[in-house]
Amino acid sequence: MTALMRYHAALLMRSQRWLPPFLLYAAFLAIGIQAGQPVLDSLGYTAAALLPVAAWLARICVTGEPDAARGCAAAAAGPARAHVACLLVALAGAAALGTLATLAVTLLSDPVASDHRTRVPLPAACGAGLLAALACALLGTAVGALTSRPLLRSPGRAVLALLLAALLSLVVSGSPARAAVQGLVTGSQQGTVPLPLPPLAAAALVTAGALALAGALAARRSP
Amino acid sequence: MRPDLCLRNAGRRYGLRGPWVLRGVDLAVGPGRLVRVEGANGSGKSTLLRLLAGIDAPSEGRITGRPARTAYVPERFPPALPFTAVGYLTHLGAVQGLSRAAAARAAREWLERLGAAAYAETPMARLSKGSSQKVAVAQALLAQPGLLVLDEAWTGLDTTARAELERAVAERTAAGGSVVFVDHDPRRLAGLSDATYAVRDGGVVRQEPSQTAAAPGPHVVVETQGPPDGRLPEEVRRTVSSAEETGPGAHRLSVPAPHSDVVLRALLTARPPWHVVSVAPQATAR
């Protein structure tokens, strides 16, 4: 599995196809975040914006390998393992990106609640922001996994489904990503730092299921 | 001894309601066996090979006994990979279970054997079609696979690389690996296949040897001297087309050309070793 992940990570890094989603994320943050804003609000936005980016990254990882090369890797390691490894690389990339962004946003923001008076401890806020970002990275990867090969093979439909699913995961009540982001925003209004562990656990479960499903279908629905 | 690779009543179709590409396939490939698959274009040969290689799962039926190390050479190999030839091969060798150092060593060795050592550091995007096919072949041979699946792997290779791949196939089967191949050239590994299967009308039929009637390929004559009353090593007897005793312990062997290295290695490493008196290409009596 390590060798497979190294192979897919190298494929992603060297193809430079990771650049557009990274730029999109930077643009999201540049538009929505200014220095001196309440830290938990900014971190909520940072986490929410990561979800569609993670989904796009997953799609890039899944579609980046030419069919014939995928066949060689699948014969060597098994199609399910090869597919899951490539999605895990996408997840690791999204998580790394979210971590960097959360740290940067924490440093730029003011340690206050929404009313700009109540103090909020920065380390705790940063920790909550990291957990929320991880929940969004997980769910975004699940969205990417479920809206690309082998589940959806027509690119047009897949991209539409990806956009729709990413949007729904952020707004539908009951979604772990929404719960994590909402927790930060509510915490900011009340001047308390939440600990978004239940949403993170739920996101991890959903994503594990999505990856397992995509992996199991990899050999059944190709090419 | 590992079990045979078996397809039992296997079928494959694309999509839940798609037409069956293959159905009711029963096929077994034992260790050390060379199996040829024939069929018209679009008959489902590639689908059968993808099932055997484990890239696709059967939509119905079962497949059992696939060796842990399986390697596959696709029909057309894309150069659209952001690696150098040796970089890609090192990754694939590691995926097949080699350490990175061993994978890099094997990568350079196979590129050299196939006559592509000069392109080791070339980005794959700049390789010619033939050279990227060599990378595809090298990829499959890196880790001495227990099952080697070749889908028109010879297409696009130059003459020396074709002969080298034939010898590599002989090495694999001599080492107990199974090899399944498709090739449009009926003279490819002629007379060496243990079984030939034809894919037609969505089914797979085993061809009788008389039906395939392949003319034997080029042979090599090996004169060898063993101890008086010595029996030829088992591996040699299995591989040669004919063996004739010309004196006490002296034999004249007729060996299919791709297997010549395997036979010589077996003779020289036998206990006690046999003496190789001469090796010469056999005059073709056709």
Automatic annotation (TrEMBL), chain A:
It comes from the Bacteria. Keywords: Membrane, Transmembrane, Transmembrane helix. The chain crosses the membrane at residues 45-62, 82-108, 120-146, 158-177, 197-219. This is ABC transporter. It comes from Streptomyces cahuitamycinicus.
TrEMBL record, chain B:
Residues 5-226 form the ABC transporter domain. It holds the Pfam family ABC_tran. One of its GO terms (molecular function) is ATP binding. Keywords: ATP-binding, Nucleotide-binding, Transport. InterPro entries: AAA+_ATPase, ABC_transporter-like_ATP-bd, ABC_transporter_ATP-bind, P-loop_NTPase. Residues 208-256 are annotated as: Disordered. PANTHER family: ALIPHATIC SULFONATES IMPORT ATP-BINDING PROTEIN SSUB 2, TAURINE IMPORT ATP-BINDING PROTEIN-RELATED. This is ABC transporter. It comes from Streptomyces cahuitamycinicus.
